[in-house]
Design the sequence.
């Protein structure tokens, strides 16, 4: 039974900053952000762009580009760690904004950056169960990554959303639904207390936790493959993959992950500066780096970041990729992780370049560090100011989906100039 990705679309804020300018403002050598972290630009969400708005933007674009009938969706899952309410989910707002039907199951998943991958796994299992009866699954990953101004995490912020349509017509990517690998352990590497808008993080420890989770999920994947009789004990999991995609808090982290995976396959650690380490870096430049342009220009989009890289891959992949495998690793702090494989479908070539991400990036507006700080301050106070309307003109926005503020303790949104009740 074929199951997988039928459509994909993304949304990002309308403004961004240049990492060179941020480095200048913080008195940091720009090479640290550009080469050390691998980040070139960073998306900046304005007060009218919250995680609901970005999710709605991605969902609406998906429906338009892939000609999706809203009534064909019977399961909507939102993955996010940028929740807007302790009870009400983003899925509930999206259900209204996307015009989904009453008999659609909806919910939100929080598991740090792993939430959307968990949603995809649930969606795939639902389709496999036979209960979908011809209907489809919509998974939306949406997040705004915020750390303190001047903190070491500041350079790894970002914002955006990716919408994924899963179905029995996997025009883009066919999921390998028979094997997957997981890892979980309670670690305090990254968290956001209930009263905080910005994340707390043990940065260097979080890198170790990410790599430990990659190893655990990879080993579990392999053990499951062998147990299911689908893999040989000595088989390389990644050798045949045309692209190896990872959770991308920043580009350099994906490089660390790729080298770690090659070490696991080789059964030994590579000495830095050794020829085998250099070869592993070259392999990263061939099988991962080309698909990180969006990530390097948007920043960390938490649970959406792996799928941003998948979208980047699908848009620039050539005919040669068709029929070949991909590996995907999702990491969520705290921590939960998953390793899976998928296969590029024939239909992918027809879609390539349809909604070119470079056109979208080019349409954004560059702002200076002062304006970025002004937006961040306004976002911090936004949800507490009862009755105040945040006007899109003040933030120079042209988008159709907007968050306008809080009235009667309810969030107010507008779409295409119409206020939603
Ligand atoms: P830091 O301590 O400011 O930076 O924080 P550093 O000193 O470690 O330098 C970073 C890199 O730049 C290093 O490269 C330096 O050598 C290099 P590496 O050794 O790692 O290869 N560097 C330079 N390169 C060229 N020229 C220079 C220069 N100076 C230094 N002049 C850190 C970095 C990532 C820790 C910080 O930004 C942070 O805390 N970020 C947030 C946490 C994070 O992103 N963790 C990643 C793993 S956990 C994860 O992915 C989950 C997450 O997405 C959340 C979730 O799941 O919900 C975060």
Sequence:
């Amino acid at each position: 039974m074929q199951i997988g990705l039928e459509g994909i679309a993304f949304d990002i804020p309308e403004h961004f900053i240049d990492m060179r300018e941020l480095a200048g403002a913080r008195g940091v050598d720009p090479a640290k952000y550009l080469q050390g972290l691998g980040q070139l630009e960073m998306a900046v969400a304005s007060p009218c762009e919250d995680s609901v708005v970005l999710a709605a933007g991605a969902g609406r674009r998906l429906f338009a580009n892939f000609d999706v009938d809203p009534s064909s969706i019977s399961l909507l899952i939102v993955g996010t760690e940028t929740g807007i309410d302790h009870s009400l989910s983003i899925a509930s707002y999206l259900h209204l904004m996307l015009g989904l039907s009453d008999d659609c199951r909806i919910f939100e998943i929080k598991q740090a950056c792993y939430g959307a991958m968990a949603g995809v796994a649930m969606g795939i299992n639902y389709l496999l169960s036979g209960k979908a009866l011809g209907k489809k699954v919509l998974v939306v990953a949406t997040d705004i990554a915020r750390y303190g101004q001047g903190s070491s995490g500041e350079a790894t912020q970002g914002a955006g959303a990716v919408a994924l349509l899963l179905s029995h017509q996997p025009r883009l990517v066919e999921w390998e639904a028979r094997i997957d690998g997981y890892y979980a352990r309670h670690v305090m590497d990254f968290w956001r207390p209930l009263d905080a808008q910005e994340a707390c993080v043990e940065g260097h420890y979080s890198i170790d936790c990410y790599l430990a989770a990659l190893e655990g999920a990879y080993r579990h994947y392999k053990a499951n493959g062998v147990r299911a009789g689908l893999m040989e004990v000595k088989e390389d999991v990644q050798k045949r993959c045309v692209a190896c995609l990872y959770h991308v808090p920043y580009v350099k982290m994906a490089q660390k992950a790729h080298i770690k995976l090659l070490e696991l396959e080789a059964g030994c650690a590579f000495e830095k500066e050794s020829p085998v380490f250099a070869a592993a870096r070259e392999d990263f430049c061939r099988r991962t780096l080309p698909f990180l342009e969006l990530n390097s220009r948007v920043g960390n989009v938490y649970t959406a970041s792996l799928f941003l890289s998948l979208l980047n891959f699908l848009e620039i992949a050539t005919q040669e990729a068709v029929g070949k495998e991909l590996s995907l690793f999702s990491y969520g702090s705290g921590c939960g992780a998953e390793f899976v494989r998928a296969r590029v479908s024939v239909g992918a070539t027809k879609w390539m370049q349809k909604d070119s991400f470079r056109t979208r990036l080019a349409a954004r507006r560059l702002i200076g560090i002062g304006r970025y700080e002004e937006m961040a301050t306004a976002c911090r106070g936004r949800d507490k100011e009862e009755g105040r309307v945040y006007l899109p003109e003040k933030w120079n926005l042209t988008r159709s989906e907007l968050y306008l503020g809080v009235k009667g303790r309810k969030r107010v949104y507008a779409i295409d100039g119409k206020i939603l009740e």
Remarks:
- The pocket of 3-hydroxy-3-methylglutaryl-coenzyme A is lined by residues 29, 31-32, 35-37, 81, 112-113, 152-153, 155-156, 189-190, 201, 203-204, 206-207, 210, 247, 249-250, 252-253, 300, 302, 331-333 (CB under 6 Å).
- The radius of gyration is 21 Å.
